[in-house]
Design goal:
The protein has 106 residues and is an alpha+beta fold. It has a single domain, classed as 2-Layer Sandwich (TolA/TonB C-terminal domain), CATH 3.30.2420. Helices cover 36% and strands 29% of the residues. The chain contains 3 helices and 5 strands, in the order αβαββαββ. Strands 3-2-5 form a 3-stranded antiparallel beta sheet, with helices on one face. A hairpin with a 5-residue loop joins β2 and β3. It is elongated. The N and C termini lie far apart (61 Å).
């Protein structure tokens, strides 16, 4: 019984990974809006990357954005910007991994 469980765990993980890949879409963005750098982040010299998962409707509009990682001072600006983006149309809703970079001028 234990051997079966040990074998089933990698198989289940592979299946979940395959399903995630099928639902991830690589639609091209048609319109992107740059984020507004938060004043407090500029003042504190905060830079970095915000990673997001954007849910894209069949018509190409972004309906939901979930934060994966990033500095808390930059997250809201990144989410607000990505909600304004437009993507190519598709057959169904999909999820797009999005990265928003924040860099201060040097």
């Amino acid at each position: 019984m234990t051997k079966n469980r040990i074998f089933l765990l990698p198989v289940a993980c592979f299946c979940l990974f395959a399903v995630a890949l099928l639902h991830a879409d690589n639609r091209k963005s048609v319109k992107t809006v740059p984020p507004v750098y938060p004043a407090i982040a500029v003042k504190m010299r905060v830079e970095g990357t915000v990673k997001l998962d954007a849910t894209i409707d069949p018509n190409g509009s972004v309906s939901d954005v979930k934060v994966v990682s990033g500095h808390q001072l930059l997250v809201t600006a990144a989410v607000d910007a990505v909600k304004k983006w437009k993507y190519e149309t598709g057959d169904a809703k999909s999820i797009q991994n999005v990265t928003v970079e924040f860099a201060l001028p040097h």
